[in-house]
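User: Quick one: structure for sequence A, then sequence B.

Assistant: Sequence A:
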Amino acid sequence: MKPTHWLWTLAVPLLAFSLLAGLACGDDDNGGSTKTATSTGAATSTGEKNPEIDQKDLAFKPETLTIKAGQKVDFKNSETALHTVNINGKNESGTMKKGDLFVRLFDKAGSYKITCDFHPQMNATVTVE
């Protein structure tokens, strides 16, 4: 075996994983809304703190939130259970583990139903004025 063979054995799968992960993080048109998923330590604000919905004790807290159109909401997972943030039936956050943060811009007025794939008892409503 050549000395560089082990490097290619490791590098090719890592490169493929990186490319696939990059494609999975692409944004789609969701009625004019944008989304960003970040880790807890990443900066996501412009100086103002976004309203927050926490995933804690197998519930969304608070269960109801009213915001203005154009505001972002931080969805945080504060517990060891895995969660998702589904908005009107669509998983937008992917699977979130403890400490993960999902930031969602709500730019259109309306009522948005928030659920979790793993815990059907978890429900919240974001009302955008």
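Sequence B:
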Amino acid sequence: MDERESLDQLLEIMREHDLDALTLRAGATTYELVRRGPVVAAAAAPIAAAAPPPVAVAPAAAGANFKKVTAPIIGVFYRAPSPGADSFVEVGQRVEVGQVLCILEAMKLMNEITSDHAGVVRRILPENGALVTLGEEMFWIEP
């Protein structure tokens, strides 16, 4: 199967399941498909797996030094325990091992995700209310 056929199959999965975005990692390469309006567009070139766009407090070169908290399950990412409540953590905040970072809702169950690392939160990757996939990076923590 060639790359174009694979891409067509992924686009069909997105349409079939009404997905707005789909990220696929193959080795060190990450492909991201994003729906833009009524058309599904594909990234023209692979995106480096370990190089998400940097933010002011997280220079790209420092990304490799961070401890990364990944999603242990597929679910909807929530930064706060309830709508209107304060977020569990903010960028720049110090966290301890076992501290709740977010909630992942899966099959109407609210799963608290805790930190395995002590340090300062340097990046929160998913948007509030976004669907995260198994193994997707959610937080960067600088020890």
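The chain has two domains: 1-49, 52-143. The chain has one helix and twelve strands.

User: Thanks, that's what I needed.
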